[in-house]
Amino acid sequence: MRAGPERPRLLVLRALGLGDLLAGVPALRALRRAHPGHEIVLAAPPGLAAAAAACGAVDTLLPAAAPGRAVPRSIPWDAPPPAVAVDLHGNGPPSHRVLAALAPGRLLGFARAGVPGIDGPRWSPGEHERERWCRLLRFYGIPADPADLALDPPPGPPPAPDAVVLHPGAGSAARCWPAERYAQVARGLLARGRRVVVTGGPGEDDLVARVAVPGAEVLGGGLPFPVLSALIAGARAVVSGDTGIAHLAVAHATPSVTLFGPVAPTLWGPPPLPRHRALWHPGPPGDPHASRPDARLLRITPDEVLGALAGLEAVTA
């Protein structure tokens, strides 16, 4: 990062995916309010620049990424040390150390044995992701509200107004409900007279094609964030696994049905509001990065999803 105007900088590390960024929006906004004179720099994948800008709390995105959910080996920082660095990536020590290497004036993060210089709270593995990072900031005297996550809809009309959006993909096979079951849901919705749109990310064209039954529309190939955001903001409802688009539905207050398997909705699920349904069959935690669908996810049936959507219509009509 090159030196810019003389303005103190606050660096946040959260080099993860879209859902992670959206779950971190309450914490980012809390940092913005607590440091109004600082430039807020977010170290995150470059593809998240538009989403980061939409949250209204980030001034600069500094490209940083690593395979999977790993910590970047370094941060391309070419400026005086940040006044404050905040670890919103993990509980250390790798994420702590990559920030400490920049010699920030102050480093905020969860305390971890063997990592000196951090006096933060202890990590709690059973905590919801939004609350986790807000609790971290509150420890340091920064008020943070995990419910502060709404995004304004993009300007202009949505690309498929009032559609039920089916998004079969996810970051790993463990969180991907079978395509043929999404196809059954699509048929059921079309039989009810609903408009159905199937979305997918880059490289998911084959998956989308297996879901897109006759009568369904396709918006695949990895929509640019402004288009995806407009689609979800204008949707009738969203059905997906535990992935970024589910968090986007929450951010736009769009009714949603989210299918959980290896990870319980108490850790990553939507707020407990009538417009959101989290489907999950309890059981021992699974591996969210496994190469096959989780056994708990496979217990969810198409009839459960269609029933949840019908229930949403009853409470949101």
Task: Give an overview in words.
The protein is α/β, with parallel strands linked by helices and 317 residues long. Helix content is 32%, strand content 15%. It is built from twelve helices and eleven strands. It has helices at residues 18-23, 25-34, 49-54, 94-100, 129-139, 179-191, 205-211, 225-233, 244-251, 265-268, 295-298, 302-316; strands at residues 9-13, 39-44, 60-63, 84-87, 106-108, 164-167, 196-199, 217-219, 237-241, 256-259, 276-279. The protein has a six-stranded parallel sheet, sandwiched between helices. A five-stranded parallel sheet has the order 3-2-1-4-5, sandwiched between helices. The longest helix is centred in the C-terminal third of the chain and has 15 residues, at 302-316. It is globular, with a radius of gyration of 20 Å. It starts with 8 loop residues before the first strand and ends with a helix. 48% of the residues are buried. The model has no long low-confidence stretch (mean pLDDT 95).
User: How are helices and strands ordered from N to C?
Assistant: EHHEHEEHEHEHEHEHEHEHEHH
Oligomer: single chain
Distance between the termini: 49 Å
Residue share in β-strands:
5-15%
**Major sheet size, sense and barrel closure:** 6 strands, parallel
Give the fraction of residues assigned to helices: 25-40%
* Uncertain parts: none
Number of helices: 12
Q: Rounded to an integer, what's the Rg over CA atoms?
A: 20 Å
Choose one word for the global shape. Answer: globular
Average pLDDT confidence is: 95
Sheet/helix structural class? alpha/beta
Strand order of the largest sheet: 8-7-6-9-10-11
- Got a strand count? 11
